[in-house]
Amino acid sequence: MSSFPQIGALAAQARGILNGLGVSASRLEGHRAATSPLTGEVLAHVADMGAEEVEGAIARAHAAFLEWRTVPAPRRGELVRLFGEELRAAKADLAALVTIEAGKIASEGAGEVQEMIDICDFATGLSRQLHGLTIATERPDHRMMETWHPIGVVGVISAFNFPVAVWSWNAALAFVCGDAVVWKPSEKTPLTALAVDAIFRRAAARFGSVPEGLSTLVLGAREAGEALVDDAGVPVVSATGSTAMGRVVAPRVAARFGRAILELGGNNAAIVCPSADLDLTVRAVAFAAMGTAGQRCTTLRRLIVHADIYDALLPRLKKAYGSVRVGDPRAAETLVGPLIDGEAFAAMQVALEAARAAGGVVTGGERVAADALPDAFYVRPALVEMPAQTDTVAAETFAPILYVLRYSDFAEAVHLNNEVPQGLASSVFTTNLREAELFLSAAGSDCGIANVNIGPSGAEIGGAFGGEKETGGGREAGSDCWKAYMRRATNTINYGTRLPLAQGVTFDVG
Ligand code: NAD
Q: Is the shortest distance between the CB of 447 and ligand 1 below 6 Å?
């Protein structure tokens, strides 16, 4: 039996967590209502910031940067290490707040905070490894090297579905790189942002000499984000959200020669080959497609199944879909919590209608508990058997819809995988070495994440997160992403007495 939350108890719980973490009551006053997708009830009110206030925050962040850039990098790493400790201490509270405000099931709320802790560990080590190269020079008696310097104020714009981790993927790196950060979280999740800000302040107080303005939170909607995007005092803008948002942000940042790091939407596929281990495949597909109610950028949205195993796989998947628990995300047995809001529900229904009109056969997708919870949107995940990869299939609908397509030739399956504009995550399920390696090769998946025998959802911070295709190369978190938060200088030192000039050029120097 699924359970659903009662209306009325969440606001007090959220306030209790915020108070306990040290968020001052004055920050919980304003006109914007912060609501919970669990019941639709109002949790608190917050104040949006106007463009002028954002400008002020950027100026203070710049002043903080001028101080912070000269602090030795390993010492900067110590601040991030302390932040990781504070996050460990606050993990249960912050995770509970993520569940209340973003609707993630409890284990995913906790998993998101764990990602914050992991990136702090990663960044602490990184603070001793901001290496530059020594480069062979063609000039005699010279040495040439590259040096990485802090770049300035980093603007972070984040999405509702990773309300706390996205900021930390950026901020932990930016802080060790010597930058200041101004954060504009999603207007749908201001409370978790306030909580993170308070936790960071605890670490800063322990560190002792953090310049005021090193980490600033600006609450607001699109306008506050635009103020960050357009400000020449923000050399790097890292924006995570829909491709629609990225399309607006990218040219505006480029117009002032800023650097954009874009982590955008995904329309992720998995290919299931005849040799696939079907037990493993069913479990992986069910989790990747239905987990977080389909509201992950890496959610599995398209399943490309070989004709020979289609009839063996589909009934098993339908069984998994029929048995999955939809309901209160705090309950241990729940896999699918609520959609974020009514808009998300409406978009899901539009997509399902379009799929039906194109010949799709829909299983599931209906709203549940609407009478008891008229302002919350719980749905059964939908499995949609499609005759072809239509425009609806090729678009990202941020809801639990899995489109299933048939293929007969592996090259055709790879083509279907690559045929959509988004290039975020992808998988192949096979025990055939040739298929697995081809999928990972230059002629295989064109996504930023390509996996074998594991679903596309979820990513470890160490491997760098995100897409490469539609965003033109995003990536936050691990690998060598830190270079995007710094500027590179090439230094040439002449330790000889000669100055190599163009042949034949002379000066009379007296
Ligand atoms: P969204 O695009 O509606 O909003 C994201 C953020 O951008 C919000 O803070 C919003 O206020 C801000 N914003 C919107 N328009 C803006 C503009 N013109 N200028 C500046 N800021 C602007 O996305 P959402 O609904 O919050 O999140 C879901 C989307 O995010 C999905 O498409 C999902 O795939 C994507 N996402 C991607 C990743 C990734 O790492 N690739 C991670 C999480 C979410």
A: no
